[in-house]
Amino acid sequence: KAGQNLLHLLWTALLFGGTYAWFLKGTQIVDSLVSFSPKLEAAAFLMLACGPLLAVRYGLFSREIRLRLQGLAAMHSSLLWKHTLAALENPLAIATSTFLLFLTVNLVARGLSHDFAIALPPHLLFLDPSGDGILTAMEIESSVLLYSRGLFLAILRTCLCWFLVNVKRPPNNFKIDGGAAGLVQKFWHGLTKRHGTFVIADLVTTSLLLAGAILVWLRVL
Q1: pTM of the full structure
Q2: Mean pLDDT on 125-130
Q3: SS3 of 163-200
Q4: CA gap 169, 87 in Å, rounded
Q5: Distance from chain centroid for Cα 192
Q6: Phi/psi of residue 118, nearest 5 degrees
Q7: Which helix (H) or strand (E) holds 221?
Q8: pLDDT of 7
Q9: How far is 106 from 55, CA to CA, in rounded Å?
C-alpha cells in the first residue's frame, strides 16, 4: 500500500509538472503562431485557457490533492501528521483551483489583439489607467494581471490562515490523557479540558489570524 501511495504521489507531481510545462510551452507556441498569423491570436489564447478552466470545472487537481494527502496520511500512525494533512486538504485544493483560474483569466486577457481599443464613456473613465478615455489591449492585460494577482495572493493568504486555524484545533479522535507528549498535543489537551490559559491563547491566535486575513482583503478591495 505504501508503494501504491508513492506511485500516486509521483503521478500527482508529474501532473503538476506537466501542466506547468504545458503552460510555458503553450504560450511559446501561441506567440510563434501569432507572429505567423495575427488573426489567430484570440482563438489560440482562448484554446490555451480552456486547459486550466476544465481542470477547475471537473476538479482534476482538487481531487488529486485530496487523494494524495489522504494516501500520505495513511502511511503514518502519527495523529499530528494525520491531522496536519487533513487540515491541509481543503485550503490547498482551493488555492490550486484559484491559481488555475488566475491562469485562465490572464490567458483570456492576452487573447486581445494588440490593436484593440475601445472608447470609454465618462462614467467608466476610472477603468482607464492612462486616463485618456481609450482602453487599449495592453492596458486591459496589465490591469487584469494586477487585480487578479492581488486577488490570488489574498485567497492564498486566506487559505494559509484557514489551514493554521484548522491545524490548531484538536482532532475529533483526540483522546484526553495525562501523558500527552509534545507541545501541540499538550495544547490540544489544554483546549479539550478547557484550561483558561490554553483557551485564551487559542482565542488570541484565532483573532490574529482572522485579522490578518481581513487586512489582506481590505488592501485588495
Answers
A1: 0.81
A2: 83
A3: HHHHHHCCCCCCCCCCCCCCHHHHHHHHHHCCCHHHHH
A4: 9
A5: 32
A6: -140, 135
A7: none
A8: 63
A9: 16
